[in-house]
Amino acid sequence: MAADSVKVSVVVPVYNTAPYLPQCLDSLVGQSLDDIEIICVDDGSTDGSLAILQDYAQQDPRLMVVAQQNQRAGIARNNGLALARGRYVLFCDSDDYLDSDALELMFAQCERDNADICICKEDKYREESRQRVPAPSHLEMDRIPKALPFNRESNHEHIFSFTTVMVHNKMYRRSFLVEHGLQFSSARNGEDVVFSASALWLAERITIVEKALVVYRVGRPGSLVATLSEAPAEPIIEWLEVFRRFGDTPNFAKRSFDCKVVGVIRHSFRNISEATAFSECFDVLRDGVFEQLALDRQDASYYYKPWYASFVAHLQDDALPEFLTYMLFETSRELDAQMDERKMERRTALSAKAKLEAHVRSLSAKVDSLESDCGRLESENCELSRKFSKVEWLYLVGRRVLAPVRALLKRRDAK
């Protein structure tokens, strides 16, 4: 495929995702938009992922495979981006998948709005329950201006917080990325923070597709979120780098930045599963990072949600044991709320199932009734056919018996 005909380059970093990789690749090669290239960068996989990639590459010339020693997802994405030829670039994780019209719809929206970035809604796929459910926090429509496209000026209040900084639901104009020299970091966790946050701040035209086109897998063993305890403070340090780059910019969106970072810090603490990692993250924040981020104490009205102010106050004032107790209590409350939400989802699903089963029973009863009617009609038809056959026989016999009489009458009329 000629370079100037490639509309979208899809960059896929791959590391030990063999059980999920075929679903991801099938969703890419099956896109309704044909003029694409798929650049898969194997990051030193040891589970057979590379062999799967090579098999797909033999079947589809649009798919390119690059193998490298393990350098993590950020470097793999950078190496894939360096090879990209498309007008736009989308980064897809190898355990996620796209709806078949994802690239076509996002490409069309980019072209329509001459956009630097196009962001779509996405769903989560819960690995433990095998359910696809909405992920509204990945694109919060109430934080987006009605007029498209928008940028840091027209969406100043929410430019850092209307979407996640994860890149898999975003399509970027490649020339925009090259112009600003945007690259992923080599961090184990949060390697997309500086890249994505910088892009959101620098973009002049951001547009939206209000349809869930990307499915993001959660709950997979070995995922970066599942291994956050191995580098618990890295996402926070990456946000500090964003602040160092843009914090002194005139009209910097500090409230949006603060709300986003406080949410990230809280998310980090909630997903750390080891006590030593929890302590490490706490120490990093209290030993200067919190002050460097300029996260000054604010009243509740400053933040998007009331809990932000309480969280910041506890993080500033509590010793480690008290802060841990606070987080355990808050997490317990949220888990209860999530359990209630899951129960509601289950009740809704069961209700829908019951309605469907009732509908099936109704249809089955109608089918039985129709079959009964068909049987009755067939029986009546057989009876009519029998009666008709008897009448026809009598008619033929009558014609033969009366034939002499008709002959006499015919001769009489002739005289």
Name the features.
415 residues; alpha/beta; Spore Coat Polysaccharide Biosynthesis Protein SpsA, Chain A; 2 domains; 9 strands; elongated
Quaternary: single chain
Under CATH, the topology of the largest domain can be stated as Spore Coat Polysaccharide Biosynthesis Protein SpsA, Chain A
Summed over residues and divided by their number, the pLDDT gives a mean of 88
Largest sheet: 9 strands, mixed
Helix content: 40-55%
Provide the CATH superfamily of the largest domain. Spore Coat Polysaccharide Biosynthesis Protein SpsA, Chain A
Concise structural overview:
This protein has eleven helices and nine strands. With 415 residues, the chain is an alpha/beta fold. The chain has two domains: 226 residues, Spore Coat Polysaccharide Biosynthesis Protein SpsA, Chain A (Alpha-Beta Complex); 90 residues, no CATH class.
Question: What do you see in this structure?
Answer:
The protein is of the alpha/beta class and 415 residues long. It folds into two domains: 1-226, Alpha-Beta Complex (Spore Coat Polysaccharide Biosynthesis Protein SpsA, Chain A); 228-317, no CATH class. Helices cover 52% and strands 14% of the residues. The protein is built from eleven helices and nine strands. Strands 1, 2, 3, 4, 5, 6, 7, 8 and 9 form a nine-stranded mixed β-sheet that branches. Helix 1 links the parallel strand 1 and strand 2 (36-43). Helix 6 (193-202) packs parallel to helix 7 and helix 7 runs antiparallel to helix 8 (254-271).
